[in-house]
Amino acid sequence: MLLFQDLAQDASEELLSEEKTLSVIDLIFNGGTGSVIIITVLFIMLGVALYIYFERLLAVNAASKIDKNFMNQIRDYVTSGKLDAAKILCAQTDSPVARLTEKGVSRIGKPLDDINTAIENAGTLEVY
Questions:
Q1: What are the domain boundaries of the chain?
Q2: 94 φ, ψ (degrees, to nearest 5)
Q3: DSSP state letter for 66
Q4: Of 12-16, 19-23, 56-60, where does mean pLDDT reach its minimum?
Q5: Average pLDDT for residues 57-76, to the nearest whole number?
C-alpha cells in the first residue's frame, strides 16, 4: 500500500513540475488569431507612441531656439521709442518668446495688470 502511495506521489510531482511556457516568438507564430491581433495592436501603439515622442522632441527643440541678441534688440527699440520696429522684429522671429514679447510690447502704456494678463494668456496658448 505504501508503495502505491509513493508511486502516486511521485507521479503527481512530475505532473506539477512539467509546466509548459510560451516565449514571445512562439506566441506570435503559434498563438493563433487572438495573439496575432494583440501583438499587432501593441506594435501599432508602439509606433504611435514613438511618433508622438519624436514629434514633441522636435517641437520643443525648435521652440527653445532663440537669437541671443533678440532681447537686446527689443530693449534697444523700446528704450529709443521704436515700438513698431520692436513689434516687427517680434513678428519676424518665430519663437514662443517672441510671441509673448510681442504681446507685452503691444500693451506698452497700459496698466501693468493688463500687460501681465495679456502675456499670461499668450503663454497659456503657447503651452497648448
A1: 20-64, 70-127
A2: -95, 85
A3: -
A4: 12-16
A5: 84
Residue 45, classified by CB atoms within 10 Å of its CB into exposed (0-12), middle (13-18) or buried (19+), is: exposed
- At 51 the pLDDT is 98
Cα–Cα distance for residue pair 128/70, rounded to 1 Å: 24
User: What is the chain's mean pLDDT, rounded?
Assistant: 82
Distance CA 127, CA 69 (A): 24
Picking from 92, 52, 51, the residue whose alpha carbon sits closest to that of residue 74 is 92
CA-based nearest residue to 74, from 38, 106, 121: 106
- Closest residue by Cα to residue 123 from 92, 98, 100: 100
- Angle, CA of 65, 99 and 119, to the nearest 5°: 120
